[in-house]
Amino acid sequence: MKSFPVKGWCPSALRPMLSGDGFLVRVRPRGGRLTSAQASSLAKLATAFGNGRIDLTGRANLQIRGVRERNQDALAAALDRLGLVDANAEREAQRNVLVTPFWREGDATQLLAVELECALAAASLGLPEKFGFAIDCGEMRVLARAPADIRIERGAQGGLIVRADGTQEGRAVAHEEAVPTALALAKWFVASAEGRGRMATHIADGAKPPRAIAGSAGPAPAMDTPSAGLVEGGALVGFTFGQLQSETLEIFATLAPGLRMTPWRMLLIEGLNEMPQLSGVLTRADDPLLRVTACTGAPGCFEAHADTRKLAAALAAHIPVDARLHVSGCAKGCAHPGPASLTLVGTANGFDLVRDGSARDVPNMCGLDPARLLTDLGALLGGP
Question: How far apart are CA 282 and CA 303, in angstroms?
Answer without folding.
Answer: 28
